[in-house]
């Protein structure tokens, strides 16, 4: 694969207009092979080819003899040679991922040529057409779109192991490869394209794959700015245009003024749960960095808009409101007014663009100075000379648009100007709305420390829940300060209080829309929510009967908390002071559902069923209280953390739970996969919106039969017992986990600013869900995505063999159950028990190894067999040929890195010297990157 075949086309370039995945993979792999040979010698390429060939043979005819030969070769290599192999296969996966994405884009382009948007599955146009065919009235659809809130939230969860530098190079290679495969280039253009491609590949080969330093919070923010500037800013205007065109086509008699129904959020800089590096000052810095980039982008756009709007008042008039606004602007900027009259005396629209640009510069200057003054305040520019909020800018832009429409310039108003307006509506100045998140325990500890010296209670922590609520409600109704000025407090409590003061300062002095959501991790009691509201009151963010400027969002993460979510919110909604808070927040309540910790705590099937039931219960309770509910799905990339195709996942949610309101996290490697290229982002967002709109108007609400729900409850309990029995009730499981997976090495990986555990502990409970899942993916067991499912299905079928027909009926007719089993199929297809057995051998205790791995292997077989029966397949994913082939293509190249990782871990654990230890750790981190790139959706 890495070597050039002399019988091929000499240039090895993809034929323009005749692109295929296999051709592009061969094309990129051969160029990579040439570079390996040039950079490290023909013997290096020969070694890569030898290992690749053996692993491919091993996949075709699994034999212990071949596996032992691979292990023997790996064991005999130097560290330098192992690193070379890791680098080769890791970059190969990067190129495969790139080629697969290009093929997806090529297929989409071909489909768009063959069929209109409205007939292509998953498009926005198809969704609008479906709703019209279902008989959804225009008024009903307009009412939903007027209040719709679909938000994609980028988080810094540490599952993207590739460095931003590597990602940048892969983005550039992707653009070059796409051009080579799609455009008919002149000879010199092709040669230049190939030269640039080789340049990028050489640079890629010579670049360190592993971060040399731990990323800081602001590094994470900077790393994700690419997706806003290079992708989303380009995609969003066209997406909204398509929506408007589709609505006009399907509902031609209805005007459709679209509000920003699709927006973006971020946790980077705001998520402080377990991350001591996210301080109030860091949050301000992160927010101002996002705003700086957003303002600079808008400022550049105004320069481009000015170049376009050269209309002379000789040929086009100007509305009176626009003229009056420029007269006011001239009072603030007299020198600029004189200069513009001199340079372009008859071009009023350019004058307005000039004034807007000057206001943006002052806004940008204020933003850049704000971090140093957020505690004390900063003098604001004069009213009218800057933009206190994006709404002020939109007012000016709208004046230009309306004037153009009134003066035969509608084409200009609906062109680039409309794109600028749409970007400001969607992204504001902040690029993304920042959420703040903190663990409930921090608020509990802070209030316990505050309440004692002021005489409210000596031991708030130990009070029963009803007394906690009584104290909090009493204080919420009071306007008196809670914290005396000179009260001595611990650093943690001071930091907690300062976080709320920071939010208040940002809202008052920077942008009231910048920080509006506060998420409470591990919400267990109603007092956890009231505590946050009280701390908000202390900072002036909430005042009973007056105002409330922040949404308080409980996050239900464990199986028990998810099962109690409905009754929990019912109790909360009955508290008068909380209802008055909601009355100030448009009677809306956001609730977040945690996929990761619920899975780690209860297993795949039990967690998914708990999530499903929680959504049903929450929607019912919200309706009973007249509250608009928005569910925030904290999904990860892997199946064990709620991953899988986003559109299908949305369609599999319980009926009547979306209704135009949905929030979803985009995490780690999923972000680069979904948003790395504009066309990919467009496709992904269309899939999400298509599913969200259709789910908001389910055609004939086919609710699951009562017998199906009862069976799922039974299966969930059985699955939960099996999972807990292995992970939590076996006293030596943690010992096995630490030895038989690379969890210790992953904890050293510099892929995020926050630690792998919330606290120093050997307990599974304290380990974050992300490294938990990541470790099982690396060791190829993929346990969090299926363990317990086989026991549950097998136990049921053994007791009731005739129940197979009911399970098949559920699979065919219930989207939730269908998606549950299909996701398990995907993760089972990515598992490899032969490789996992080699990781198990890292555990030196043979009895422990046989006990734990024996249980894992038994459960795997049982799960595989049960899914075969219910889904009526012989192999996992046989009904998904594209994904099936992708996994088959990757496995022979993942296997060598797994062999290498096992060998490196063995060497590291043999107590080498400090220098060699550091080198081995670095090499292991390289293998972690490689396996993650090969498996995809690993975190």
Report on the structure:
It is a single chain. This protein has 4 domains: 21-148 and 161-217, no CATH class; 283-427, de novo design (two linked rop proteins); 434-634, no CATH class; 706-935, no CATH class. It is 63% helix and 6% strand. It is built from 39 helices and 10 strands. The strands form 2 sheets. An 8-stranded parallel beta barrel has the order 1-2-3-4-7-8-9-10, surrounded by 7 helices. The protein has a two-stranded antiparallel ribbon with strand order 5-6.
Short description:
With 939 residues, the protein is of the alpha/beta class.
What percent of residues adopt helix (DSSP H or I)? 55-70%
Name the beta content range. 5-15%
What kind of sheet is the major sheet? 8 strands, parallel, barrel
Distance between the amino and carboxyl termini: 29 Å
Count of runs of 4 or more consecutive helical residues? 39
Structural class: alpha/beta
Gyration radius, rounded: 29 Å
- The neighbouring-strand order within the major sheet is 1-2-3-4-7-8-9-10
């Amino acid at each position: 694969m890495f070597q050039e075949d002399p019988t091929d086309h000499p240039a090895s370039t993809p034929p323009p207009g005749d692109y295929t995945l296999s051709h592009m993979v061969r094309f990129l792999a051969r160029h990579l092979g040439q570079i390996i040979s040039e950079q490290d010698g023909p013997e290096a390429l020969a070694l890569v080819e030898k290992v690749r060939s053996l692993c491919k043979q091993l996949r075709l005819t699994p034999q212990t003899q071949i596996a032992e030969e691979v292990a023997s070769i790996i064991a005999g290599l130097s560290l330098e040679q192992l690193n070379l192999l890791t680098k080769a296969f890791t970059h190969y996966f990067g190129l495969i991922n790139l080629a697969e994405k290009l093929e997806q884009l090529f297929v989409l382009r071909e489909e768009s040529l063959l069929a209109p948007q409205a007939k292509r599955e998953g498009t926005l146009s198809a969704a609008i057409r479906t709703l019209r065919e279902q008989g959804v009235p225009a008024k009903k659809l307009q009412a939903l779109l007027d209040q719709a809130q679909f938000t994609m939230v980028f988080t810094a969860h540490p599952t993207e192991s590739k460095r931003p530098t590597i990602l940048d190079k892969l983005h550039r290679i992707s653009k070059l490869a796409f051009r080579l495969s799609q455009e008919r280039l002149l000879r010199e253009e092709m040669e230049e394209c190939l030269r640039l491609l080789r340049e990028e590949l050489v640079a890629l080969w010579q670049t360190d794959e592993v971060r040399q330093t731990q990323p800081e919070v602001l590094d994470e923010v900077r790393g994700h700015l690419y997706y806003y500037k290079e992708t989303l800013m380009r995609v969003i205007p066209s997406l909204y245009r398509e929506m408007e065109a589709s609505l006009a086509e399907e509902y031609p008699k209805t005007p459709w003024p679209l509000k920003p129904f699709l927006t973006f959020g971020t946790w980077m800089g705001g998520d402080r749960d377990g991350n001591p590096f996210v301080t109030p000052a860091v949050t301000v810095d992160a927010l101002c960095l996002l705003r700086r980039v957003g303002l600079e982008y808008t400022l550049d756009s105004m320069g481009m808009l000015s170049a376009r709007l050269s209309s002379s008042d000789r040929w086009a008039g100007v509305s009176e409101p626009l003229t009056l606004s420029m007269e006011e602007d001239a009072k603030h900027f007299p020198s600029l007014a004189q200069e513009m009259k001199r340079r372009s005396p008859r071009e009023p629209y350019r004058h307005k663009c000039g004034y807007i640009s000057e206001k943006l510069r002052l806004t940008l200057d204020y933003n850049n100075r704000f971090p140093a003054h957020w505690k004390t305040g900063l003098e604001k520019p004069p009213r009218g000379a800057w933009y206190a909020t994006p709404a002020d800018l939109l007012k000016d832009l709208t004046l230009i648009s309306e004037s153009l429409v009134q003066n035969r310039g509608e084409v200009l108003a609906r062109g680039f100007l409309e794109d600028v307006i749409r970007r400001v509506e969607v992204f504001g100045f902040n690029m993304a709305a920042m959420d703040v998140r903190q663990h409930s325990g921090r608020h509990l500890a802070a209030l316990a420390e505050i309440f004692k010296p002021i005489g409210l209670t000596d031991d708030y922590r130990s009070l029963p829940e009803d007394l906690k609520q009584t104290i909090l409600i009493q204080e919420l109704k009071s306007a008196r300060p809670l914290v005396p000025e000179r009260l001595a407090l611990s650093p943690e409590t001071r930091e907690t209080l300062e976080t709320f003061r920071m939010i208040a300062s940002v809202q008052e002095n920077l942008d009231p829309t910048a920080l509006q959501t506060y998420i409470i991790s591990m919400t267990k009691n109603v007092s956890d929510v009231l505590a946050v509201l009280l701390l908000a009151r202390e900072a002036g963010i909430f005042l009973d009967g007056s105002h409330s400027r922040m949404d308080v969002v409980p996050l239900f993460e464990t199986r028990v908390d998810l099962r109690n979510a409905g009754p929990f919110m019912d109790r909360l909604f009955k508290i008068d002071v909380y209802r008055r808070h909601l009355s100030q927040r448009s009677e809306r309540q956001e609730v977040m559902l945690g996929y990761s910790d619920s899975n780690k705590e209860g297993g795949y099937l039990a967690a998914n069923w708990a999530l499903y039931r929680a959504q049903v219960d929450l929607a019912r309770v919200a309706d009973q209280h007249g509250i608009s509910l928005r569910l925030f799905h904290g999904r990860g990339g892997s199946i064990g953390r709620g991953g899988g195709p986003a559109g299908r996942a949305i369609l599999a949610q319980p009926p009547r739970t979306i209704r135009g309101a949905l929030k979803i996290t985009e995490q780690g490697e999923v972000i680069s996969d979904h948003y790395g290229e504009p066309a990919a982002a467009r496709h992904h967002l269309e899939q999400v919106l298509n599913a969200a709109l259709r789910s908001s108007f389910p055609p004939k609400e086919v609710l699951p039969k009562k017998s199906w729900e009862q069976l799922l409850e039974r299966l969930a309990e059985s699955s939960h017992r099996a999972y807990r029995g292995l992970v939590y009730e076996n006293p030596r499981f943690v010992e096995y986990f630490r030895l038989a997976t690379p969890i210790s090495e992953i904890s050293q990986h510099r892929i995020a600013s926050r630690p792998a555990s919330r606290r120093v502990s050997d307990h599974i409970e304290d380990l974050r869900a992300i490294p938990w899942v990541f470790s099982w993916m690396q060791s190829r067991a993929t346990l969090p995505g299926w363990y317990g499912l086989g026991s549950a299905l097998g136990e049921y079928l053994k007791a009731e063999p005739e129940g197979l027909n009911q399970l098949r009926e559920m699979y065919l007719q219930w989207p939730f159950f269908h998606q549950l089993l299909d996701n398990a199929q995907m993760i089972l297809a990515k598992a490899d028990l032969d490789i996992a057995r080699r990781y198990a051998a890292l555990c030196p205790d043979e009895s422990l190894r046989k006990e734990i791995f024996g249980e894992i292997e038994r459960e795997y077989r049982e799960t595989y067999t049960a899914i075969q029966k219910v889904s009526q397949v012989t192999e996992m994913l046989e009904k998904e040929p594209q994904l099936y082939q992708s996994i088959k293509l990757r496995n022979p190249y993942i296997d060598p890195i797994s062999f290498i990782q096992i060998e490196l871990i063995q060497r590291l654990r043999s107590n080498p010297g400090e220098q060699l230890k550091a080198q081995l750790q670095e090499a292991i981190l390289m293998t972690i990157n490689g396996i993650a790139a090969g498996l995809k959706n690993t975190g």
